[in-house]
Specification:
This protein is α/β, with parallel strands linked by helices. The chain has one domain: Glycerol-3-phosphate (1)-acyltransferase, CATH 3.40.1130.10. The chain has 9 helices and 7 strands; from the N terminus they run H-H-H-E-E-H-E-H-E-H-E-H-E-H-E-H. Strands 1-7-6-2-5-3-4 form a 7-stranded mixed β-sheet, sandwiched between helices. Helix 5 links the parallel strand 3 and strand 4. The protein is globular, with a radius of gyration of 19 Å. It starts with a helix and ends with a helix.
Length: about 260
């Protein structure tokens, strides 16, 4: 075996490593599907969150991504809305590895093979962004959920390479005002472990497919996923604050941080 490994060219070794990583990913996904199908129905909310966090942490481990969280103590134990910038399909798993939470995602995610089904089982709320009437219905659903659980949204409406933060769409922030809960900005970025600079490897943009994005992330085995929790915009204070003000506050807070 030692002699065989010595005779393998670097390119061949690289292929073997990639195959091994892909194998780990799909085994992990299958385990997740089994857990959602046969174990989740019998668990309480706390136990479900623990399973979600464990699964997400292991996924990051497979990709060799280190999770770093700053100012986590700012988050309250009571329900709240989190507004994050959006870079990758990994964002959800990075946030869940830190603290499991309900998400709002674009309707296209529901159609993803396996991952879309998993997102649905985890209580993700799907929104048709081109349908104003549907968006209003989702806001009502979110306000109801926020009475007992926290929710995370990606109000840019699309993903970026992470260099800038697009203007936040204000519609979904109405739920925080209706539910009388604070809105926390969350800045997420992916950095190189070697240089400390921003990495675009995990970016999921344009016409890129999910498997292509996963492959790009696999090729870069030296990433840090950094989450920074920022001071909340207390949407429950005063009657003059509106959803646009909350959206601008969160967007500007994240932009300044990044």
């Amino acid at each position: 075996m030692k002699k065989l490994s010595q005779n393998l060219k670097p390119i061949e070794m690289s292929k073997i490593i990639r195959v091994w990583i892909w194998t780990q990913i799909w085994v992990h996904v299958i385990c997740g599907v089994c857990t959602l199908s046969f174990i989740f129905p019998f668990l309480d909310r706390k136990s479900k969150d623990r399973k979600i966090q464990e699964w997400s942490k292991h996924l990051l481990k497979i990709f060799n991504i280190k999770l770093v969280v700053q100012d986590a103590a700012l988050l309250t134990n009571t329900p709240h809305l989190i507004a994050s910038n959006h870079i990758s399909w990994l964002d959800i798993h990075v946030i869940n590895a830190f603290k499991p939470i309900r998400f709002v995602a674009k309707s296209e995610v529901e159609g993803w093979p396996i991952f879309g089904w998993m997102a649905k089982q985890l209580g993700t709320v799907f929104i048709r962004r081109d349908n104003t009437r549907h968006a209003r219905q989702v806001v009502g659903q979110m306000a109801e959920v926020l009475k007992t659980e926290s929710i995370c949204i990606f109000p840019e409406g699309t993903s970026t390479v992470g260099a800038t933060v697009l203007p936040f769409k204000p519609n979904l922030f109405e739920s925080a005002i209706a539910a009388n809960v604070p809105a926390f900005p969350l800045a997420i970025q992916y950095l190189s472990k070697t240089s400390g600079l921003r990495s675009e490897s995990p970016a999921f943009i344009g016409d890129m497919g999910l498997l292509e994005s996963m492959s790009n992330t696999i090729q870069n085995r030296s990433l840090i996923a950094q989450i920074i929790i920022l001071s909340p915009c207390p949407s429950s204070q005063g009657s003059n604050i509106d959803r646009k003000q909350v959206a601008v506050y969160c967007q500007e807070s994240i932009a300044k941080t990044l």
